[in-house]
Every structure is written in C-alpha cells, then in structure tokens.
Amino acid sequence: xxxxxxxxxxxxxxxxxxxxxxxxxxxxxxxxxxxxxxxxxxxxxxxxxxxxxxxxxxxxxxxxxxxxxxxxxxxxxxxxxxxxxxxxxxxxxxxxxxxxxxxxxxxxxxxxxxxxxxxxxxxxxxxxxxxxxxxxxxxxxxxxxxxxxxxxxxxxxxxxxxxxxxxxxxxxxxxxxxxxxxxxxxxxxxxxxxxxxxxxxxxxxxxxxxxxxxxxxxxxx
Length: 221
Hints:
1 helix; elongated; single chain; Jelly Rolls
C-alpha cells in the first residue's frame, strides 16, 4: 500500500493510506506555523488553531467548509444561497444589498371574522416573524367564505405600509354571490422600512360571513 510520511523539521507532512483505512491527512499547522510558510497558490493545510482546512488562493488563506467559503470575497459577489431558506445578493465583494429570507413555515398573523370597515386601518406587528433590518414583507392575503360570500358588494382585504399611502396597497377581493366556502388569495410585497409593522383594512359584503387571513411568507432585508 502506498504511503507518504516524510518528516519536516517543524510539522507533519502529507499522509496517504489506502486499503481498509482510506484517508488523506494534510499537514497540521497552527496559524503561526501557517503564516511562516512561503505560501503559493494551491497549498492545502489543516489549521489546528481554527480546526479548519484551508487553501491558499489569490494571495491569501481561505477556510474550506463549515461556512468558511462564504467569507471568501470571490464568493461574496452575485447571488448566492446560504442555508435552505434565504438568498443573498452582493453586487461587489462584501457589499450586501439585500437578503431574502423565506420562513420555514408561513406564519399566520391575522385570522379574523370581524371586518375593520371601509377606511378603518389596523396595525399588525411583525417583529416576532422578521429581522431587525427588514424593509419588505412577503405576504399572502386570503379571504375565505365561512358559508356565504354575501348578497351584494365585495369582500376586500387590503394591506399598506405602516401609516402609509393607500395608493399602492396590496389587495385581494372575493365577490359576493360566490359558491359556499369560496376563497380568494393573493401574494405580494409590502414595504415596512425597518418598523416591522404594517396596516390592514377588511371590508365585508352585505350578508357575508367570511374570514380574513394574512400570512407572512418571508421578508427582505
């Protein structure tokens, strides 16, 4: 079985073993020992100080694995996934513009059978479901008829920025005279600008019995 195990004056060299115990063992160095090397691009070592495998590339040491690659400037440009639920965008090295986070489970922040009434806005606090730097929320609006959707008019649910304009609010409506248990859904984005709150208005059609629901699907920082 081939084996390479030459000694160095200061630290162990590469060990390669095949057979039942296949493995490749890299040189194990402390950070001080690593920095004393006359490093060239392509070198690999195990840093015993940080407990990470590192490579020398483009003139610097870079950690490999356990999230280490994310600190490399070349990998912090463009759009990258990080984890299963969010996506980051870096237009230049280390210049994070935004990160979109998708919640593992949509969080219901409203379920009400009592409408606010036209022109009456109620504030919902999204602090528990978002990050401190949140600028936009990704919401699902839902109206579901608890039997009858009404005789006339329309069931509407609107969302606007906290104390903001209604000119560009997110809206979903369920027309009256729909079959029992009909529902309407919409998904959109509402601006929150770090206040982590937004307003909603719900209006029920004449003779209707509906439930208004709002879910937070994610947020953008």
